[in-house]
Design brief:
Helix content: 40-55%
Enzyme class: lyase
Pfam family, one: PALP
Shape: globular
CATH class of one domain: Alpha Beta
Protein name: L-cysteine desulfhydrase Cds1
Family: Belongs to the cysteine synthase/cystathionine beta-synthase family. Cds1 subfamily.
EC number: 4.4.1.1
CATH architecture of one domain: 3-Layer(aba) Sandwich
Strand order of the largest sheet: 2-3-11-8-9-10
Distance between the termini: 45 Å
Radius of gyration: 21 Å
Order of helices and strands: EHHEEHEHEHEHEHHEHEHEHHEHH
Length: 390
Amino acid sequence: MNTTRNSATPAPPRAAAAATDTCTATPTIDVDRSDPAYRTWLKEAVRKVQADANRSADTHLLRFPLPERWGIDLYLKDESTHPTGSLKHRLARSLFLYGLCNGWIRPDRPVIEASSGSTAVSEAYFAKLVGVPFIAVMPRTTSSEKCRLIEFHGGSCHFVDDSRTMYEEAAALAERTGGHYMDQFTYAERATDWRGNNNIAESMYQQLRLERYPEPAWIVATAGTGGTSATIARYVHYMQHDTRICVADPENSCFFDGWTQGDPHATADRGSRIEGIGRPRMEPSFVPGAIDRMMKVPDAASVAAVRALEGAIGRKAGGSTGTGLWSAFKIVAEMVAQGRTGSVVTLICDPGDRYLDKYYSDAWLAEQGLDITPYAAAIETFLATGAWPT
């Protein structure tokens, strides 16, 4: 069953879809791209998106406290400070510029996205900025706070019961409304300028240049579309750095199996509990050949890691941050065991206040059958001794 919700009133499934179709322009004749009015609109839309980037200071690079004697520095690139509160703000900006410059995003036509949350929040922001409607197709289990944020930015939420049907439903909705299906899972890796232009990798290296280990030994990312790991890995290779790239994958995701088995057709039979990352299919934007390592991270370990992060630096973060942080901890422990020094970088992908009813709720953990106790103990042992419990 699919339902569409907007900030006005909930509606029954079929009525909701009809309301969505009715409230957006659906002319059968396409936009005349030589029309001066369209060219004026396009230039203004691109200017607004570029101006958003120009107004924004870069995100912070935070240090996670580790014992000085280890000779290892652990950093978190805090992407939660973007205007829409997540790493996906960069992606949404790139996707909107890509869609506008390709002539795909047009006046009064809706932009539609298949998203479990944060990308949709950011795309709703940019849709409102340029003045077009926005509809997010998402699993019904998406956090209520993310839905609220999408609606706050003027978007609508269109729910599906099975996350594996998001892609087809988003494409069908675009067809019915005459809108543009943004398709982040296909275009994330190509819409971002991985050679530079202040992408996330270039930003990391600029911020590290005065640190004692300016070239990190490892950068740990997580994968939803795969666009971030592709951008970072390509930049590292392009700039001829020796940094290695690790991608941390949650339960109920096929990326790890597809990478280890070299299977581009790998699938998973259910959706990820860690919102924003992990996919049931190998997404076109995931570039396995660019990365050096993958780790499979239990969901309970991801939750234990974000709770440890709050204890260490006083910041709540989403579950995807915990997935990457758990893997970063393990890499640091390996470096300690090998007597190596250096730096490791991972990401704060979005803020934890979006997930108070999930990753910070003991009731939700019990409902999901997740016991974080052994993982929390493992982190405590690691932070005290540098050793990774076996």
